[in-house]
Amino acid sequence: MNTERRGLGFWVLAAFFTLFVLFLYGPLTTIFILSFQGPDGGLTFPMNGVSLRWFQNLFETQAVGDFGGSFLRSLMLGLMVMATTIVVALLAGMAFRRPFWGAGPLFYTAIASLIVPSILVSLGIGLLFQVVGVRSAWYSSAFGAHLTWALPFGLLIMFAVFNRFNPSYEEAARDLGATPWQSFRHVLLPLILPSLIGVGLFGFTLSYDEFARTLMTAGSFNTLPLEIYGMTTNVTTPVLYALGTVTTGFSLLIILLSLLGIYISQRAARRRARA
């Protein structure tokens, strides 16, 4: 009887997971297919031929939309958020390894932005810049808004890493005469490097596709999510699908590069351990 119940539960979970995957990737598959419409194709099925016309159109002068500029802004903003998240999360994680006065309130203050509605964060930062007389821009106000979203995730990851970290490795290095910097550079950093890559990936992806916290803070120039949203109301060709395919491929490329970086760092750590 128990075997039958386990079998039924397995098939129910398998069916649910299959539906979840179809719901998650079905729309992406549809966009991918329609991005290869022929020159006279529209926004829906059936397809009218097959071509790369709409991918080529991405690199041409557009009557509506600024694909290249918005992509570069999102890329630069994502890299800025990634670098800042890595540095601040690492320093904060190391600081919280030892108890200090006010650690609890500081921790909850740092992660409080996760429970605040994103649109309110965007509105508040936009109003603040307006009150102080500073013009909102993607590299200033939007940068700060994105940090309120990406940085708490980086902090939580690094806190979890250091809570499980064995300090005896650093103590052994100091017993052998290593300076604090040498202990950090040759012992601590290689061990936590995969986690730092994960923090960077979180920071970049959370910034790259963020819409709500960018809406009131981007200023005069759109990031890619804002540009895509604006295009949905005035673009009537499959060029929008081509843009979606390219940006999705770029996101997957970033993930693959991050996984490759983690793999390389782990292999290097194993080599050093054998030596």
TrEMBL record:
Gene3D superfamilies referenced in this protein's UniProt entry, alphabetically: MetI-like
Keywords, comma-separated and alphabetical: Cell membrane, Membrane, Transmembrane, Transmembrane helix, Transport
InterPro entries (alphabetical): Bact_Polyamine_Transport, MetI-like, MetI-like_sf
Annotated compartments: Cell membrane
UniProt main location, coarse: membrane
Domain annotation ABC transmembrane type-1: ranges: 71-258
Signal peptide: none
Transmembrane segments: 12-36, 75-94, 106-129, 149-166, 187-208, 239-264
Residue ranges of coiled coil: none
Topology in the lipid bilayer: Multi-pass membrane protein
Similarity comment text for this entry: Belongs to the binding-protein-dependent transport system permease family. CysTW subfamily.
Protein name: ABC transporter permease
